[in-house]
Amino acid sequence: MMQTRHTQAFHLDAEEALVLKFRKHWFVLVRDSLPTALAAFLPPLVFAAASALGLAQAVYVPASLLTFTNLAWFLVVWCTLSLIWTNYYLDLWMITDKRVVSIDQVGLFHREVTTLPFANVQDVTVEKKGIIQTLLNFGTVRVQTAAPTVKNMSVEGIPRPEDLRDVILKELGEYKDLAVANRRQEELLHTISHEVKGHLTKSQAALASIAEGDWDAKPGSLHSMAETALSETRRGVSTVMDILDSSNFKRGTMALANEPFDMKSMVLDLTHELKNTAQERGLTLQTEAGNGDFRCVGDESKLRNEVVRNLIDNAIRYTKQGSVQVALSSTKSAVRLEVADTGVGITPEDMRTLFTEGGKGKNSRDVNPESTGYGLFIAKQIVNAHGGNIWAESEGAGKGARFFVELPRE
Amino acid sequence: MESGASLVELAAWIVFGGILLLTASLGIVLAYHWFRYAMSPAATAIALSAYVTVCGLLCFGMFGALLALRSAL
User: Fold this and answer.
1) pLDDT tens digit string along A49-68?
2) Which of B36, B27, B21, B45 is nearest to A83 (CA)?
3) Averaged over A173-187, what is the pLDDT?
4) How many CB atoms lie within 10 A of CB B26?
5) In angstroms, what separates the C-alpha of B66 from chain A's closest C-alpha?
6) Do residues A378 and A248 lie in contact, with contact meaning Cβ atoms separated by under 8 Å?
7) Cβ neighbourhood burial of A109 (10 Å; 0-12, 13-18, 19+)
8) What separation in angstroms does the CA of A276 have from each of A173, A270, A353, A370, A400?
9) How does DSSP assign B22-46, residue by residue?
10) By C-alpha distance, which of A27, A111, A43 is closest to A77?
11) Which of A246, A251, A266, A313 is nearest to A285 (CA)?
12) CA-CA distances (angstroms) from residue A144 to A2, A152, A155, A341?
């Protein structure tokens, strides 16, 4: 949550709302442009002065040359004014519900985007210097940071600076309240999930015992009911486990093993296990694993069940016809898994929320209504915790998707 | 006198060429910034029209002045 600087175009996060956007006061543009604009009159003034002093009569200068010189000068002035206006217009300040953003266009080729999250903001002060700033109601706004290592943010020429300060302080207050509320909610969710998981696991065991015939002979309808209840309870346990895992990652309490394992044997084992599921749906599941070193270090169980199984299972679920291809390759420093399908694909809008908590795609609601939306979020957390990367590519709806996982080698 | 006049004319044409090049290059760079970073498409369109119109008029005027200069010298 540090102050960040980069030079790319600025984009809001998926769940970020823009509160206020503004640029500097018009007086700043006038002040910066005035010397250049006045310089436009320099050549006519020089020629007029030369005429007045009688110098023009000494040297013959055709009127067309004077016109040409004046127009050339006007063009240079116009280009400079365009540049000044561009710098003014592209300089922006934005207040979102999460941070303060300053976009600074420096000259032609340098554009700096500075963001300061509210978590780092301590105070906002306003300074107005001189009679012009007071009369026209603009001044300098300084956002002071809480951490000594993070620089303060300061921008001059801000119109109605007091209003801006009030907006930042209001958002800051709401952000802090929200952060506390979120933390409490997270703790509550964790406690409830934990309790529910306990009850559901007991019910699951009892229902499994009935469905699997550990008790006396029972009517067919009761057996069928027990199996349905068991299936629903298993789904409930799975959902609660997803929520608990997600909560543990956010609280930083997820424990991961750190042991060497062979990614190739894990992937081959899983694809063998899921081959029947794919065949039942009329799909072909192809696996391709080259030669090489596929040894990694980490939590094999979590990677197997929450990442690799999840990706292959998703590919099967979201593909109505065609094939699912799993490819494993190894480079000098990493092992890469690719799961490609010919399924429903991912739209650019869904792509933005694909790996977020509860992020369900538009197509996924039709194809897989039972999706909790936690699977890919958890997969991303696990892969990232192993120092790896997970990402997806798709050309759009109906054009299939490819998911990649890259893990560092042992 | 004759060679001095043609030298002035040549210098004027070189200045004209240089200014055309500067205007076009700056226009491309500015337009790139407007299209990529400006949040309002209307502002981009207005800025581009104003830039092209004013530059066009001034360049046209300069070209006219150069033709007049040729006949004056």
Assistant:
1) 888 887 766 667 788 888 89
2) B27
3) 76
4) 19
5) 7
6) no
7) exposed
8) 55, 11, 31, 21, 21
9) HHHHHHHHHHHHHHHH-S-HHHHHH
10) A43
11) A313
12) 13, 5, 12, 50
* Cβ–Cβ contact B69 with A under 8 A: yes
Give the three-class secondary structure for B48.
Answer: helix
Tell me which chain B residues have a C-beta less than 8 angstroms from the C-beta of A76. 19, 22
- State whether residue A78 sits within 8 Å of chain B by CB: yes
Q: Which of A64, A68, A86 shows the shortest C-beta gap to B30?
A: A86
Residue-level pLDDT at A369: 64
**Which tens digits make up the pLDDT trace of B8-28?**
888 889 999 999 999 999 999
User: How far A339 CA sits from the closest chain B CA (Å)?
Assistant: 35
The residue ranking higher by pLDDT, B31 or A249, is B31
As given in the structure block, the two tokens for residue A82 are 């365009």
Chains A and B form CB pairs within 8 A to the count of 79
pTM for the model stands at 0.53
How far is CA A277 from its chain centroid? 34
Q: What are phi and psi of A121, to 5 degrees?
A: -85, 130
Per-residue pLDDT at A6 exceeds 60: no
Q: Choose the mutation target among B15, B19, B40 for the interface with A, i.e. most A CBs under 10 Å.
A: B19
Is A79 touching B (CB cutoff 8 A)? Answer: yes
Q: Does A111 reach chain B within 8 Å, measured CB to CB?
A: yes
Which residues of B fall within a CB distance of 8 Å from A63? 68, 72
The ipTM (two decimal places) reads: 0.91
Q: Of the candidates A183, A145, A142, A147, which has an alpha carbon nearest to the alpha carbon of residue A165?
A: A142
